[in-house]
Amino acid sequence: MMKKLIIGLFALLPTFAMAAGPSVPLMEAGNDLTDKASLQRGAKLFMNYCLGCHQMQYQRYERTFRDIGIPTDIGQQQLIFDGSKVGSHIKNSIKKEDAAKWFGAAPPDLTLVARVRGTDWIYTYLKSFYKDESRPFGVNNIIFPSVGMPHVLQELQGLPTPITEQVDEHGHTVTKVVGTQTDGSGELSTDEYDQAARDITNFLAYVGEPSRLESEAIGYKVLGFLVILFILAFFLKKEYWRDVH
Q1: What angle, rounded to 10 degrees, do the helices at 72-79 and 61-68 form?
Q2: Virtual torsion, Cα 59, 81, 114, 45, nearest 10 deg
Q3: How far is Cα 190 from Cα 69, in angstroms, rounded to an integer?
Q4: Of 142, 122, 178, 151, whose CA–CA distance to 21 is shortest?
Q5: Looking at the domain covering 2-154+189-210, what would its CATH class be?
Q6: Partner residues linked to 164 by β-bridges
């Protein structure tokens, strides 16, 4: 299992190295792994909008449902669309050859994307698509220039238009996209879409490290035990050396 995770991580690196894009201030995701309602909404959004192209081949449906509080029968009925068993890994049926032909490169596995890129990058990426008719899918992305994927959340956000400004780069004045503004055609308001992007980010952060909360809880217990042990050892040392001094 560890070998597969390492291989998957290094497989992601070239793709996301190219996705780094220009130096753009990242928006703060503000994700909260203790917010199970957010994780459940994020899982629903991912399964409906992202899983068609991306997959999470190192994460199982059953583990996911259990961790984020989704009853197994409900998760199987509403979040598994390809007939997979609840114990299966979260994969899609798209062939890599077809994906590479359609998008220019096979969409990467997203199991570890939050650990590779960080939650702020993911959140900013989801909010940085804008209309660009020169691109094959009619959209571009501020922090991932020449992105090869469509804006899959467009029906929720609407089609954002770019906000540009003239900047000086190396003695030349260039037009730079510094932000976006939605056209209002989406199903969600601006605040609602922001929350949807945060929910997906939160879910990807959980998938990248499913045992994080449990590990942190164990860590606090270990630290508490060490503090108590130190106090006991301190008084024991004083008792042993009392007659010597």
Answers
A1: 120
A2: -140
A3: 28
A4: 142
A5: mainly alpha
A6: 177
Flag whether 172 is marked binding. no
Bridge partners (DSSP) listed for residue 172: 169
Question: From CA 130, how far away is CA 241, in angstroms rounded?
Answer: 73
**50 annotated as belonging to a binding site for a ligand:** yes
Q: Where are the domains of the chain?
A: 2-154+189-210, 216-245
Q: String of b and e for 114-123 (b: at least 16 CB within 10 Å)?
A: bebbbbbbbb
Q: Rounded distance, CA 243 to CA 241, Å?
A: 6
pTM: 0.80
The b/e string for 28-60 (b: 16+ C-beta within 10 A; e otherwise) is ebebebeeeebbbbbbbbbbebbbebbbbebbb
Ligand-binding annotation for 53, yes or no, is yes
Q: What share of the chain is helix, strand, coil (3-state, %, to 5)?
A: 50, 15, 35
Q: Are 175 and 122 in contact (CB under 8 A)?
A: no
CA distance 196 to 38: 9
103-150 pLDDT tens trace: 777 888 999 999 999 999 999 999 999 999 999 899 999 999 998 899
